[in-house]
Amino acid sequence: MEAPLNTNPPFDPSIPSSAQSAYWVGPRHLAGDDGRLYDTVADVLASLGWTSLTLVRGRQEPDEAPEDRQVLRSTVLHISPDTLRWAQWVLPDEPFHLGDLPIAWQISARTDTSSPLAQWSGYFTPEVPGEALADFVLALDARDQPAVSFAGPEVVLDAVTAHGWLRDNDHPADGAVDPTFTSHVAFGEVPPLIQDADLRVLTAEAYEAGPAGWQAWAEPFMGAPCLWAASFGASTPDDLVAVFADSVSSTAPVLRRLLPTSTKERLLRAPAS
Questions:
Q1: pLDDT (mean) for 225-247
Q2: Which residues are 15's β-sheet partners?
Q3: pTM of this structure
Q4: What burial class does residue 166 get, using C-beta atoms within 10 Å of its C-beta: 0-12 exposed, 13-18 middle, 19+ buried?
């Protein structure tokens, strides 16, 4: 059920999130992750029966008590029952950056268990709306063949334009933007370090364009730092990307207690009863 939204209810970001009032806010693509991106996705994965493993790497000096060990890196790995798909919470693990933002979740899939290598991977920074990432992993889990695409790239743009987003004037087949021109989806060259089975990732020369894949991001104002970013390897099934695009562009309001500083004035919000 959608809640009515208004633009000016009181909201004090200085109050700890545990004491904040809850609000229904929109648009979703500017609503952030409510500070719960790990919990939102991990809870979904647990409900699907995925196994979670915590990997901790550190350094312990001789005669040092275990509790004094220096933890250098840690990550949480979630593995599906068939081991064909996995999700890593890598934010504490000094991940590389996407749009000047650190990667929080890396989600991958392979074609069969004989190879340890991912066929494709998707990368998501903090402030990606948790609902969109939860819908993405639900769709991934439901597939018998997680590395096979069952539709073409057009389904991604169809998903967002169905919610009022606009096709890119110059490249209508490759991108779209929301009506306020803050959030984007685009098909283009994949950023460096994105893991994918497409051999062009490894063989492309410096002067050659690499493989193309879907990217999505929110830029609250022209030239402002991105609020969030997502990148999908070239081999990521287009219909899976479309699930993410459909959810992130949804017009349905989402429940939030903690609003992003850069977009809170652009959000419609109504108290949640």
A1: 96
A2: none
A3: 0.84
A4: middle
